[in-house]
């Protein structure tokens, strides 16, 4: 048995005044990508300068206006990358790069050396503030820990005086989620006293869930409490930096936005330390799916995945929200049936609003238009198979026929095991309905209209390879063919249902016809399908298709 007694509950904030549960997300926050810093520092093989450059270009393309590009005082690669950005004039005027450093003088000096020449920069300092880290890492009391933050702020302020560009300060009480709220506000206020932010140069307080320690509502309480207790809130940008240790980073961030956060730091696909930083794309697509402009250019998920996987040498899971290979795919029968009906209803409604069961967004909106939303295996049903035949091959089978053909595919999937791909489904359709020529094979027909409703036909066909020729009258061409065959071959078949539709348009347009036929002697029933550029030929082919299936 797991030794759960080894762990204790993390104390929660007593905060009954909370207002966030009644709020709704109404707009996108300021996004800050930390892919090139937090994301990078956690990779097995951190990015080289070229990879960082490619990732930086991607982040620009996605519309990030704040990008933490690294920890330039930490290593030569980090330093060189920043210098390449600056010397190559690669930072657009509307983009602010951010650099991280500990509150240590030689690191701050090195950071300032690295940022020379940048027009707009966020210098991000941090120190750990939690009870645990104060005790076991720093062996310091609250005042000593606060002094690290105050000294770091002073050092940045001092160097900022002579800096030609614009410097914004970001301060993170690292391990915030394990910090007592009164201490967190005390240390932030002390930093604010030194920095003296204004409405024109706001101070970013970044409150990280360095380690996610509790349910998302607890983080939201902490964020709202800070939001309400900051002095000069108007001069503060409240940023959050959630990690995902409990797997609820996205939820925690969304609740933090309700609780007053203005800004979110995170990464693409949630890369980052341990279980990762919060996945910015996930939150942005969540907003998009609620009709909120996420203020990121994220319509091509495939390109984002491709660059991310190459630069980070990580892979996006098949079930990853919005991005995974399988997230817009239904295998199971009832889901497929609902999607099939939902897509049809959507087409008929055409009011521009997406509402399809099991598909929270239109896959085409994120560049996933070539992937099948329905895939067939032994869990699938008739609705899914009808959907594949309609959307991929243009056959709108009559509803009564769905079960008959689904049974054929179900047998196939059981025999072969695993997935039946769309081409196999089409091949089976062809084999079962379109290309059956035994024992009856339709050759040609000549139709003459006798009056408004009666037709005379001259029919050529083969029976077991033998040429046959017959003439008959009937109530339309199909009825005439039925009468001809019944009398010629001593049969008693009747037509129960008939339908047809056009396939394609213009000079390549064809007609598909479906006949439901009954053998009155055996009481067997089946469907037949015929396709031709000529509607009469299509219907007579469907007659012969059904006849062959009845006679087998
Ligand atoms: C939650 C986060 O993601 S924080 C960001 C973490 N990212 C990284 O650490 C990546 C880059 N870091 C590095 O390359 C290295 O840590 C460096 C170059 C910055 C510093 O390296 P070093 O000085 O060799 O080692 P290290 O980071 O272990 O420093 C530990 C010392 O710094 C102190 N320290 C740690 N963090 C801070 C801080 N934020 N402010 C001030 N002092 C700090 C520690 O108390 C310790 O002091 P001690 O030597 O008196 O015990
Ligand atoms: C540097 C800080 C913000 C950090 O990455 C964290 O606390 O997770
Ligand atoms: Mg982090």
Automatic annotation (TrEMBL):
Pfam families associated with the record: HMGL-like, IPMS_D2, LeuA_dimer
Reactions this protein catalyses: 3-methyl-2-oxobutanoate + acetyl-CoA + H2O = (2S)-2-isopropylmalate + CoA + H(+)
Keyword flag Repressor: no
Top-level taxon of the source organism: Bacteria
Region listing for Regulatory domain, in residue ranges: 436-552
SMART domains to which the protein is assigned, alphabetical: LeuA_dimer
SUPFAM superfamilies per record: 2-isopropylmalate synthase LeuA, allosteric (dimerisation) domain (SSF110921), Aldolase (SSF51569), post-HMGL domain-like (SSF89000)
Keywords: Acyltransferase, Amino-acid biosynthesis, Branched-chain amino acid biosynthesis, Cytoplasm, Leucine biosynthesis, Magnesium, Metal-binding, Transferase
Cofactors (names): Mg(2+)
InterPro entries (UniProt xref): 2-isopropylmalate_synth_dimer (IPR013709), AIPM/Hcit_synth_CS (IPR002034), Aldolase_TIM (IPR013785), IPM_Synthase (IPR005668), LeuA-like_post-cat (IPR054692), LeuA_allosteric_dom_sf (IPR036230), LeuA_N_DRE-TIM (IPR039371), PYR_CT (IPR000891)
Subcellular location: Cytoplasm
Residues that hold Mg(2+) according to the record: 38, 241, 243, 277
Pathway this chain belongs to: Amino-acid biosynthesis; L-leucine biosynthesis; L-leucine from 3-methyl-2-oxobutanoate: step 1/4
Primary enzyme class: transferase
EC number: 2.3.3.13
Domain named Pyruvate carboxyltransferase: residues: 29-302
Gene Ontology molecular-function annotations: 2-isopropylmalate synthase activity
Assembly behavior: Homodimer.
Family: Belongs to the alpha-IPM synthase/homocitrate synthase family. LeuA type 2 subfamily.
Function: Catalyzes the condensation of the acetyl group of acetyl-CoA with 3-methyl-2-oxobutanoate (2-ketoisovalerate) to form 3-carboxy-3-hydroxy-4-methylpentanoate (2-isopropylmalate).
Protein name, UniProt field: 2-isopropylmalate synthase
Gene: leuA
